[in-house]
Automatic annotation (TrEMBL):
Pfam families to which the protein is assigned, alphabetical: Amidohydro_1
Keywords of the record: Hydrolase, Metal-binding
Protein name: Dihydroorotase
Native species: Aquimarina hainanensis
InterPro entries: Amidohydro-rel, DHOase/Allantoinase_Hydrolase, Dihydroorotase_CS, Metal-dep_hydrolase_composite, Metal_Hydrolase
Length: 446
């Protein structure tokens, strides 16, 4: 096991930034101090003078497309892109082919990741209208949680039976994560514009079709049901200012029963960008107004929104290059999420400490991930070293996603990830992936 000594780093951890050294051995942080000497001549010494050391990012929502959709992405290709973006742990969603709605299918995905993942991994178990018996078999100590699609599902994963939904909420001790958009509202809106435009609906109407009201109707129902049943609810990818009123910022995260996430694209883009980006920024829920974007950032800073994630969901360029009704929603983000947030830091919109809180600490707290998300002695040594003054431009040559494109293509970021460590091994350094697949199955302290 590699021994690593990181010298002279600006360590960003638990709300503070301090200069010091970090010694890593046997895959864990062994010592953190103002000055540490090398323990042996075999230690790899990294001079971090002027750079910032962050805990590895934990992304609580990705779609890596394996099994069944591997022409778009695989666990291997996307976890490789993730470590290049400083994401050292991910939680993947169940809407693959086949869907992850049985214990057998869940364990099959764990087996794939054990062989191929560069980053640490866990998977959501998928709920349907008719698999409550399987849900009850899931061990909450070994699985990230339960994912329910209350809108915009694939296959048979739309949970639209109110009686079933309430029974699931009342029966499981799993953390329930939900996609909230009201299907009836979306269908009605789609019908109106399809009658007018056919399949070639202007992309600018995407946030009108998948509207604020569609989001609020669904998320408010989910929150009300969680309050009624006492379920532990986590609402994925909020996209509107209106929904912020549903969430509390007056109690610590550890005490919250209802939490919420915001994604990179909803903090970065607005409906003004559809003209340039087209279907490349077609997501569900839709990117909405600049006022929504600004309110989401404010909600993040005031702790109504608890974590930042990517909802990484790649499609091929050919699939995206279609008319509105045929172009799939989703896009690749894991490689560029942390650089994008650091850009918001450079713009004076968020502090480094807050980025670390929302991307590293809080996902660990919220999902009760065991010994990750912090730079602490005894914790697994997942870490990211960042140079805040090393500009680079996203282009085809440095994009690692299997789909080969990014909505950030052509963007110049001021900050560069110089090193990523997963379980104590340097797996990425200055645009080069080492080839070490050191990801481990996440465990949960529940």
């Amino acid at each position: 096991m590699q021994q690593v000594l990181i010298k002279n780093a600006n360590i960003v951890n638990e709300g503070t930034i301090f200069n010091g050294d970090v010694y890593i051995e046997d895959g864990v942080f062994k010592e953190i101090a103002s000055q540490i000497s090398a323990k042996s001549p075999d230690v790899l010494i990294i001079d971090a003078e002027g750079k910032y050391l962050l805990p590895g990012v934990i992304d609580d929502q990705v779609h890596f497309r394996e099994p069944g959709l591997t022409h778009k992405a695989t666990i291997e290709t996307e976890s490789k892109a993730a470590i290049a973006g400083g994401i050292t742990s991910f939680i993947e969603m169940p809407n693959t082919v086949p869907q992850t709605t049985t214990i057998e299918k869940l364990e099959a995905k764990f087996s794939i990741a054990a062989e191929s993942s560069y980053a640490n991994y866990s998977f959501m178990f998928g709920g349907t209208n008719d698999n409550l018996e399987e849900i009850m078999k899931v061990d909450s100590k070994n699985v990230a949680g339960l994912k329910l699609f209350l809108g915009s599902s694939t296959g048979n994963m739309l949970v639209d039976n109110p009686e079933v939904l309430e029974k699931i909420f009342a029966s499981t001790d799993l953390l329930i994560s939900v996609h909230c958009e009201d299907e009836e509202t979306i269908r009605e809106n789609t019908k109106v514009y399809k009658e007018k435009y056919g399949d070639d609906i202007p992309i600018e109407l995407h946030p009108v079709i998948r509207s604020e009201e569609a989001c609020y109707l669904s998320s408010s129902r989910a929150v009300a049901l969680a309050k009624k049943t006492g379920a532990r609810l986590h609402v994925f990818h909020l996209s509107t200012a209106k929904e912020l009123a549903l969430f509390d910022h007056t109690i610590p995260l550890q005490e919250k029963k209802i939490t919420a996430e915001v994604c990179i694209h909803h903090l970065w883009f607005s409906d003004e960008d559809y003209k340039e980006k087209g279907t490349l920024i077609k997501w569900n829920p839709a990117v909405k107004t600049a006022a929504d974007r600004d309110a989401l950032l404010e909600g993040l800073l005031m702790d109504k929104l608890d974590v930042i994630a990517t909802d990484h969901a790649p499609h091929t360029a050919e699939e995206k290059d279609n008319v509105y009704t045929k172009a799939p929603s989703g896009g690749p983000l894991v490689q560029h999420a942390l650089p994008a947030m650091l850009e918001l830091y450079h713009q004076g919109k968020i502090k480094l400490e807050k980025i670390v809180e929302k991307m590293c600490h809080n996902p660990a707290i919220l999902f009760q991930v065991e010994k990750r998300g912090y730079i602490k002695e005894g914790y697994f040594a997942d870490a990211v070293l960042v140079d805040l003054n090393a500009p680079w431009t996203v282009n085809k040559d440095n994009i690692l996603y299997k789909c080969g494109w990014s909505p950030f293509e052509g963007s110049t970021f001021k900050s560069r990830i110089t090193h990523t460590l997963v379980n104590g091994s340097v797996v990425y350094e200055n645009f080069t992936v080492s080839g070490i697949k050191n990801g481990k199955r996440l465990t949960f302290d529940r």
